[in-house]
Structures are given as C-alpha cells and as structure tokens.
Specification:
By secondary structure, the protein is mostly helical. The chain has one domain. The protein has 12 helices and no strands. α3 crosses α10.
C-alpha cells in the first residue's frame, strides 16, 4: 500500500486525522500548564515567543532526523523553494504562533480550543474562493452559521455580557484566519515537495525568526525550567512534529475542506483535557453549548451531498 492509499482512503485517513486533531487539542492545556510551571508572567511577550521558538525548533529537528535516518532522503531544496518556505514559516510559525501563544495566555484553555475551530470555517470560505471543486453550498452555509454561533456563545459570560479580550480571543481569531490561508499555500506547495519537508523547513525557519526576535529581549530569570517544564516542552515538540507532518500529508492527497470534518475533535478534546488538567478551569453550560454548536457546524460543513 502506497502513501496515497494510506492518506486518502478510509479507515486510515480517519485514524490519521483523529490522531493529529487530538494531539493538537492536547496543546491547549499543555501550554496553560507550561506558562505556570515556567513562571512566565502574563504580560511577558518575549518569554512566550522564545518558548514557542524553542518548541518548533525542536520539532523541526525531530522531523529532519526522521527524514534523513528513516526515509533516507536529502533535506536540501532549491533557493526558490527555500524562499517560499521562509515566507510560509514567517506566517505559519512565527506570526501564527506568536498570536496563538499570546492569545492562549489571555483566555482559558477551553475557550482557546473552541475558538481554534474558526480556522476550519475560514478554510471552507477560502477554499470556496480558490478551488472550483470545493464550493460552498446551502448545507455548508448552515454549518458555518452554526459554528460561528458557537464561537459567539463561548464568549458569553455568566452575566449574559459579551466577554472579549482582544489580546486573548482577538489574537486567536486572527491566528485562525492566518492558519486557514497558510493551509491553502501548504496544499499547493506539498504537491512538489514532500509534506514532511514542508513541515520541517517552515517550522525551522519560523522558529529561528522567533528566537532572533525574542532572545535579545529576554530578561534573566524570565523562565524557570523545572523537570516538569522540560517534559511539557519535549511533549509539545513531539506533538507538533507528528501532528503537522501527518496533517500536511493529508492536505496533499485530499480536498482542503473535506478532511476538516475531523477537526471537530480539536475543540472537544482541547476543552475536555483543559477541564481535566488545568486546575482553575471547569466545564460550564456555555462551554457545553458552544462545543455542541461548533462541533455540529464542523460536521455539517463537511457533510457530503447525496
């Protein structure tokens, strides 16, 4: 069985999609716990950028190692492709995760997980504008409206007042839009370059930019690396290496909108894991309703028409 069969046919496609999405879902509580374990101040942007840069630098090196040792292939690419990957890395890793890390620190892990589902809805809309065979229909419109309603609901507080922090929820929404745009670019680039290489190079280059920006401004003692913090960082690197490599390969062999169906497991797993592992977070009625609406929206927008 070749790669195309594994990544484009059921049940393999479903299993790989779910593994990627659950790994991404676990990133929300891991990041919240990491901030506390590393003793990073809420307004310390440089420490968050350095943490993200370190994570993705480690993740890229893991993929490069796997590609060289086990796939027996060269990681070298031409200058034109490297320039494209530098552009992708500056958006997909540097800017996206800069917004993401700051956003997560200014909201709850559960809200962050649910807001992350916006990336799929944005992807559906962008795919409609880019691809002739991936158009929005009446069913997708219902799904999009349901999903957006869920995102609005998760920002509704107990006092029935709209609770929105631009540096929290706002940054996460911008990151979701950016991620959707990058997914289209990745799909096109992966047709010529192995998806694992696309993943590794964009992470490596994006991480270098983050470290070049953050390290010179990092204050002494801003991060305290305990054994638990190292375990969380290493896990984050592994989950990024595995999830992105698998997902970018799925994008190569499937329609961008089609595999997004399984992304409903990201907010669900992210919210549940945050409730389990982050002490101050509890599942409320608003979270439950938002999860139901967002998950329903994600399923509906990807429902195949008979």
């Amino acid at each position: 069985m070749n790669n195309k069969d594994v990544f484009s046919k059921n049940p393999f496609k479903i299993i790989i999609s779910l593994i990627s999405c659950i790994l991404w879902g676990s990133a929300f509580p891991v990041l919240k716990i990491s901030y506390e374990e590393l003793n990073i101040a809420q307004n310390d942007m440089n420490s968050k950028i350095v943490l993200a840069g370190t994570r993705f630098l480690m993740a890229s090196l893991l993929i490069f190692t796997y590609f060289i040792l086990f796939m027996k292939q060269s990681i070298r690419l031409g200058k034109k492709d490297m320039l494209k990957l530098l552009l992708l890395g500056s958006f997909q890793t540097t800017l996206y995760y800069g917004l993401f890390y700051i956003g997560v620190s200014n909201t709850t892990g559960m809200k962050a997980a649910i807001l992350g589902a916006l990336e799929t809805f944005f992807l559906i809309i962008i795919a409609h504008m880019v691809y002739e065979d991936d158009k929005i229909n009446s069913t997708k419109i219902i799904g999009l409206l349901t999903g957006f309603l869920g995102v609005i609901f998760v920002n509704w507080g107990k006092s029935l007042s709209f609770q929105f922090n631009f540096k929290g929820e706002g940054f996460l929404i911008m990151a979701s839009l950016l991620g959707a745009v990058c997914s289209i670019f990745v799909k096109n680039l992966s047709q010529r370059i192995h998806p694992f290489l696309v993943t590794a190079w964009q992470m490596f280059l994006g991480a270098l930019l983050m470290l070049l920006f953050g390290l010179p401004n990092l204050k002494a003692g801003a991060m305290v690396f305990t054994p638990k913090a190292w375990i969380l960082l290493i896990y984050s690197a592994f989950l990024s290496a595995i999830a992105f490599s698998l997902w970018f390969t799925l994008l190569k062999y499937n329609k961008a909108g089609e595999i997004s169906l399984y992304r409903f497991t990201i907010p669900v797993s992210g919210a549940l894991l945050s409730a389990i592992f982050v002490p101050e977070e509890n599942i409320t009625l608003y979270i439950i309703v938002a999860l139901i609406l967002v998950s329903t929206g994600l399923i509906v927008v990807n429902r195949k028409q008979s």
